[in-house]
Amino acid sequence: MILSTQERILLLLNKFFQDLVEHKLSEKHGEKWFEQYLVPYVIAYTQDRSNKNNKNFEKYNAFLNKNNGNYSKKDIDVTFASALLLYDDQIELEFEGNEKNALNQLRIARNNYGHATDLTALHRISLNSKTLIDLKNAILTFGKESISPGMFEEIEELEQAVLNPTAETNGHTREKIEESICDQEYNRAEDLLKKGNLEEAYAIHIELDSQGHTPSTIRLGDFYRLGIYVSSDIDRSVDLYEKAKEQGELSVSEVIESLKELKQNSKEAEEGKLNSQFKLGIVYEEGKLVPQDKEKALYWYQKALSQKSLLARNRVVSLAESGYKNAQYVVAEAYELGRGVEKDLDKALVEYEKILYGDTEEIAALEKVIALTERDAESQYNLGIYYHDKKNYKEAYKHIKRSAENGYANAMNALGYLYGYGQGVEKNLETSFKWTEKAAEQGLVKAQRNVGLLYKNGTGVEKNLKASFNWYKRAAEHGDGKSERILGQFYKRGYGVKRDYHMAFEYFQKAANKGEAVAQYELGLCYGFGQGTKTNHTEEVKWYKKAASQNNSDAQHNLGVCYCYGDGVDKDYSMAYKWFFKAAKAKNPRALYSLGNCYEYGYGTYVNKEEAFKCYKKSADLGWKRAIEKVYPTGGS
């Protein structure tokens, strides 16, 4: 019986996989690998219920059911072997990436035969030739020692039969067949390129170029132009593109001209021609014609910048703004030394500080900043803050103190902070107060608020609520929302001033409109209890909601109370439960107690006595009196 070419190839495919399985498993399990290892393993695999949904289960089961259970090595086919070698981790056969790729190509080839119907003669020849090429590649990948003697020669013999036109080719010439095979190999090389296998892709294109395959000649030109796998070589790239052009590919004309222009610009740039230096910088920065190289781009921009090129300056600034450190140094030095721009030490300092912000280990930039900051107090303060952020408190103290002594208010306030917390200097609350007050007297609002706090708590100074009130008032006069809110609380409680609910309401309103969450909560209380204004539960709910949206747990709890009693909203126990739950997550003792009530009596949720007790216990442990009485009725803990 004479077999067709396709049938012979399919037999070779199966034979290759049979040989490879035998080669690999006999190395690992000895001569009786089939009887003593493979068959028992496959039987155990199919009997394991956990493998039922695995794709390999069907393939292994099909193998066992061949020939009524008379197991034979000849029953190993591509499908079974692929499952075994590629998809079964328990077999523990270690393959390199190129080996897996070779096996996968053969698996795909076998599938292609299964799906190939009504093929034209040329397509059938292309499929056969592609499979034979993949078989040869696989054998070369694994080594001829892994297959039966003579298989490689049989494949080469079949290749000649496929390529020799017969009546089967339906009049197609050998040239067309070879062109189709070249196209297939080109596509394979492109796939390898996408997967990062540059070496193999390059080798295929070299071989195809030697056979006059123009697309591969162009791709090799790209390799040399862009430095893919090989070193960038513009001359070699131009030669390859011109070869492709001679073969009739006119689309490469533009890139040839661009590369020749690049060579000319390079020559003229070396000679000092400004326009060529600038153009060369653009080419290297964009990385379209040649590999992107910011260092070379910056080098040529600097050359052009030294000739006062505004376009080059703009390009350098753009590189610096993109975060390219070397360009940032060029910009900083340009302002510092007046290179291509007007000398401006303040701008230079800003640029050096930008470098430090991006990379705090840049010693050169740090030294420049230190040198430039000796000029003014603000720069000294900024350097101190830089060191403080790095937790180098001694250096922070040194620079902030110098700035404070030179009269910079922000530094005075910061120095007060350092003394207050003993950072970089021995803790001294009296000195902390002194420097904070100096900053406040210069009109620094946050310092005025801080002095108010120090007087309120008696920190570094004798406690004095009236003095505290006055400092908060000075800060509030500058529109400080926090101070306005605290003034409202002073008026509400009569701290340092006569109690006045109307004034409290006024200050809470000012601070609340600035987004102060505590002030919004306090304003809600004013409307709820009619303090300083008429009782208005709708307004009460409105301000609780604003504060609650900023995660103020007291407002969240009170909002839940409003839903419980229907004050300003429709009574809704589920909404009450929701807000109590939110506030309880923040460990608000009142909210925990109210949430306990919800669980105990089923308000807005199911009755759950166990959860109720947990909530009461947490509330009691946080000191809420009503919860303590409920959990510890005798007063004990």
Could you walk me through the main structural features you see in this protein, from its secondary elements to its overall organization?
71% of the residues lie in helices and 0% in strands. The protein is mainly alpha-helical and 637 residues long. The longest helix is centred in the first third of the chain and has 25 residues, at 5-29. This is SEL1-like repeat protein. It comes from Proteinivorax tanatarense. InterPro entries: Sel1-like (IPR006597), Sel1_AlgK (IPR050767), TPR-like_helical_dom_sf (IPR011990).
Quick synopsis:
With 637 residues, this protein is an all-alpha fold. Helix content is 71%, strand content 0%. Helix 1 packs across helix 4 and helix 16 packs antiparallel against helix 17.
